[in-house]
TrEMBL record:
It comes from Hevea brasiliensis. It holds the Pfam family NYN. Residues 141-169 form the C2H2-type domain. Coiled coil: none annotated. Residues 1-22 form the signal peptide. Residues 350-397 are annotated as: Disordered. The keyword Ribosomal protein does not apply. Residues 350-376 have a biased composition (Acidic residues). CDD domains: PIN_LabA-like. The keyword Metal-binding applies. Keywords: Metal-binding, Signal, Zinc, Zinc-finger. This is C2H2-type domain-containing protein. InterPro entries: NYN, Znf_C2H2_type.
Length: 397
């Protein structure tokens, strides 16, 4: 009877103890419940939650600035947007592109290349043949805004101008006349429609001035600046902007699109400041390419060859930087500082040696002073010890 009662009490205490322990674990460490639902890598274990310890450090990349001299090197034979985008893609191989600037006077933006003139002339001839019914397009002209199809280009253009052009102008007038919150609401409401119109109008309407160079470069992300019509105004403004970027250390690599030899001094100054320079121009043996670290032509930019070669160029730059760190350079100030330290150390050693010599001399002076008792002992030692027998008979007699 006694043993049965004891066993039952032991089982009850065991159950109570287990319940108390489970409640303590649930209250103190509630995140342990999630461990059964989580899976960790066997190599990392629980420390895999902290990814910062396992990730490799991110290497800083160079900042790249693009400076485009449109007066000297406009994209005449290439579409402006395509040329600007390819240039940005090639420059991104040297680092992160942070600045994209283009300078020109108003004549550069109003100029129409010969290729564009021939295309417009062919388009007018095709319009005349379509109006007479001589030819018919294989595929209809599709409106990018409403989706209507036309088999006559002039009718398609009239439709776009009269309907979509007027709607776009109404939206602009409403936004200009509105103020405050109403203006913000109108901009957000018409944002998609206005963007859709801008994307469609590029291939339909002909720009009133030039061939849309400034608009296409802005669409590609470039900051376009129009300077005065004075001679060399664009070169001076572009040179000042490059110097300002170098002074403020906003870029470590400069990409110059020009063949003008007036920029040789700026490139030399950039190299003196340990900056990398890249030139894009059509003159293979020009003055700029001889000074710059790397040079490419427009054909290499558009074909993607420059982006492939940029990998080897960057690798060569890294090797040069490594060699510069390893090579010895003479620094007069550092040499003077080291010489002064060596002279001070030599003076300190000579002073310490002199002090040691003086201490030895002082110790010798003290040793020269002998008491009378010590002198008698020394005489006795010289005569012989008391236990030694004197074998000389003359001395005994």
């Amino acid at each position: 009877m006694f043993w049965s009662v004891a066993v039952s009490m032991f089982l009850k205490f065991r159950v109570i103890f287990q319940s108390i322990q489970s409640t303590q674990l649930n209250t103190l460490i509630p995140c342990l419940r999630l461990l059964r639902y989580c899976h960790f890598d066997s190599k990392l274990g629980l420390n895999s939650l902290n990814h910062t310890s396992t990730l490799a450090p991110i290497k800083p990349q160079n900042n790249v600035a693009i400076f485009w001299d449109l007066d000297n090197k406009p994209p005449n034979s290439f579409p402006p947007y395509e040329a600007a985008f390819k240039l940005k893609t090639a420059a991104s191989s040297f680092g992160v592109v942070t600045y994209m600037v283009a300078y020109a006077n108003r004549h550069a933006f109003s100029y129409v290349p010969q290729v564009v003139k021939e295309q417009r002339k062919e388009r007018r001839l095709l319009n005349q043949l379509e109006n007479k019914g001589v030819i018919k397009p294989i595929e209809p002209y599709l409106c990018g805004v409403c989706g209507r199809k036309f088999y006559n280009n002039e009718k398609f253009m009239n439709h776009f101008k009269q309907i979509h052009g007027r709607e776009h102008q109404k939206r602009l007038n409403q936004i200009e006349s509105a103020r405050g919150k109403r203006r913000v609401k109108l901009v957000s409401r018409y944002a998609m429609k206005m963007q859709k119109y801008k994307n469609a109008v590029r291939s339909v309407l002909t720009p009133k001035v030039g061939y849309g160079l400034a608009d296409e470069l802005k669409r590609a992300g470039y900051w376009v600046r129009t300077v005065s019509d004075k001679p060399q105004a664009a070169d001076v403004a572009l040179r000042d902007h490059m110097v300002d970027v170098m002074d403020k250390r906003r870029a470590e690599c400069l990409v110059l699109v020009s063949d003008d030899s007036d920029f040789v001094g700026v490139l030399k100054e950039a190299k003196l400041r340990c900056m990398k320079t890249v030139v894009v121009g059509d003159i293979n043996d020009g003055a700029l390419k001889r000074v710059a670290d790397a040079g490419f032509s427009w054909q290499e930019i558009l074909r993607g060859k420059a982006k492939k070669e940029a990998v080897s160029v960057v690798g060569r730059w890294k090797d040069q930087d490594t060699l510069k760190r390893l090579e010895w350079t003479y620094n007069p100030e550092e040499e003077k500082r080291l010489c002064s330290k060596v002279a001070a150390f030599d003076n300190y050693e000579s002073d310490s040696n002199y002090d040691e010599d003086e201490d030895e001399n002082e110790d010798g002076d003290f040793e020269g002073i002998i008491d009378e008792g010590e002198a008698d002992g020394m005489e006795k030692d010289a005569a012989g010890a008391w236990w030694e027998l004197n074998s000389d008979p003359e001395a005994t007699s």
